[in-house]
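Quick one from the shared queue. A colleague (R.T.) flagged RND family outer membrane efflux protein-like protein as missing a structural entry in our internal table.

Convert sequence to C-alpha cells.
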Amino acid sequence: MLRRVINPILFLPLALCINSINVLSSETKDYIDSVLEEKPNKPFISYQEIEEIVLNNQELRSLKNLVTSASFNLSSQIAQRYPSLDFQANGLPKYVAGKKHSSNSTTLKTSQYSANPSLNIKWNLIDPLRGPEIKIAKENYKIAENNYEIKKKDLIQEARIRYHKYQKSYQDIQNKKFTLNLSNTSLDNALAKLDAGIGTKFEVLEAEAQLSRDKQSLNEKKIEHEINTISLKEILNINGDFETNKEQNLIGFWNHRLNKNINEGLDQNLSLKNILLQQSIKKSQAQSFLSQNKPKIYISNTLASTFSKGDSLSSNIDSEKSGSNYTNTISLNFAWNIFNGGQNKNSYKSKIADAESEEYTYKNLKNVLTTNISKAYLNLKLNEQKIISSLKEIESSKESVRLSRLRYDVGISTLKDVLVRQNELSNAKAKNINALYNYNLNLDELERLTFLEISKSCLDNNNNKIKDSESICNISR
C-alpha cells in the first residue's frame, strides 16, 4: 500500500519538471506554422518601403498641388518683365443707318458698315514694384517646396512610429501568451499537487488568480495590436490586410556625435529656413510699399485703324463705296504717385516690425531643436544600455524560473515564489521590447531632426568596428 502512494509522489516532480521545460521551450514558434500563415493575396510591407508608400498619402498630394500653384504664380510674376500686347475692336463689324432731314437742304442718308481694330503694345521699362513682387513669389515657391518636404518627412516619421508600435504590440502579445502558458503550467502543477495530497487549495487559488490576470492582460494587448494595425493602414493608405515583419530588430546604428547632430540639424532644418524666407518676404513687402512712391516709366505703341463700306451723310447711298485709315502712336510715359498722406511709409514700418519679430521666432526654434536633438541622442544611448541589461535580465530570469519550479516540485519552495519569478521573466521581456521600440524611435527621430543617415554598421569615434561583446553593436539583430 505504501508503495502505491510513494510511486505517484516520486513521479510527480518528474512530470512537473517536464511541463516546465515544455513551457520554456514553447517560446520558439514552429517554423512550419509561420510559413502556413503566409497568404499570397496580402501585400508585404517592409520598413524600407515605408517612405515610398507614404508618397501616396492624400495630405501629401494636396501639398504637392500647392507647390505647383506657387510655381505658376512665380511664372506669372516673372512675366511682368516682358511687354504686353492688347488687341481691341470696337464693332466687328458695326452698322450705322439713319437720315438727316433739313428744310433748307437735301435729306442726307447713312448706311455704312465699319470696323475699328486697334493694337496696343506696352512695356514697363522701370517698375519699382516688379522686383519685390518677383522676389516674394520666388520665396513663396521655396516655402511651398519646404512645406512639402517637411510634411513628407513628418509623415514618414509618423508612419515609422506606427510601424514600430505595430511590431511592439505583436511582441507584447507573444510575451503575454508565453506568460499565460507559464500560468497554465503553474495551475496544472498546483492541481496535481493538490490531488496528490501534497499541495494546498490556497496555492490553486493563487494560480487561478494569476491565470485570470494574464488572460485579461493578453486581451488588452490584442486590442492594442488591432488598434495599431488600423492606425498603420490609415497612414499608409492601405485597404485590406497586409503582411510585414513582426519581429523586432535594430534598424541600424547611430555613429554621429552630439555636436555634429546639433550642427547638421540646425544647418539643414527646413522650418528654420522657412522662418528666414518669411522674414525676407516681409522685408520685400515693406520695400514694395516704398516703391509705390517711386516713378514708373513705360513705353507704349498704339496702332489704330478704321475700315468702312457704304455711305455716310450722302443724298444717294453708294453701297460699294469703301474706305480706310490708320494712325500709329509711340510714346514714352511717366507716372509718379508723389504723396498719399504717409500711408505707404507707415505700412513700410509695420512690415519691418513684423520682419524683426521673426528673429525671435528663429532663435526660439533653434533652442527647441537643440533641446530635441540632445534629448533624442541621450535617450538613444540610454536605450542602448537598456537593451543590453534587459537581455541579461531575461537570461537570469529564465534560470530563476527554472530553479524556482524545481524547488517547488521537490517541495522546498512555494508556488508564490514561482509566480513571482514568472512575473519577473515577463517584465524582463517587456523591458526588452520597450527598449528596442524606444531605440528605433530615437534613431528615426535623430534622422528626421539632423538629416544624417542611419548606419548599417556600428563604428567607434575612429570609424573602427566595435568588438566589445557587451556592446549594442554585437547583439543579435
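Residues 84-126+296-335 form one domain.
Strands lie at 44-45, 84-100, 108-126, 243-244, 296-314, 322-335.
Added to the table.
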